[in-house]
Fold this protein.
Amino acid sequence: MATPLPLRSFMYWAYQYKRTWRASLTTTFLNPVLFLAAMGVGLGSLVNKHGQSHLGGVKYLTFLAPGLLAASAMQTASTESTFPVMGAIKWIRTYHAMLATPLRVFDVLVGHLAWMAVRLVVVSTTFLIVMVAFGATRSWEVVLAVPAAVLTGMAFAAPLAAFAATQDNETFFPAIFRFLVIPMFLFSGTFFPVSQLPAGLRPVAYVTPLWHGVDLCRKLALGQATVGGSLFHVAYLLALVTAGVMAGLFTYRRRLVS
């Protein structure tokens, strides 16, 4: 049986990862350990002394951990969908080599996005294991936070990959991290409830993809998820993924074929 064409693109990225998986797996494990130890346990000991009413009555570690799970997916996706995409177009020209075979633009894009999703599964699963080790979960539903975090990451990966395909250099990438990724990391509910923001900024936070991912992961981790609320978050994030894939098909084709 012939290998599906998108899978051939995926297999290239998986083969590439064989050379770097040890280093990346170390950071994948250490990052949640250090974040939860420093922020959840260290800073959390101070937050817990001043009451937990604004956190829904849970310890700060329990509140923080699922938010960081979603945020780590966002950060991983943003990294995987910017410089590697530009490298595949301009520096290493991997995409061009793929298109010299029977692979089409669709296969190249979908295969790479599928690899990004696998990377998100690894990062999110590792983060969940660390969360459990820290005792930062309250419900078995937390296992569903892994696909929720992956979906959150893909809501960033697909649009950013489409954007990266339009760029001739990496000038805009640091700006994306500085003015989009980091502000969302800080102000989309990861570290404190969005209700604590000034009234004028709350609507902005509520429309960010990260807030939807954070709220979904947190509700699942705390056992507070509802069907309606979860479907709303999933639909919002899926819409961004779909829009990103459609935009990516256009920008990839324009850059690589035209």
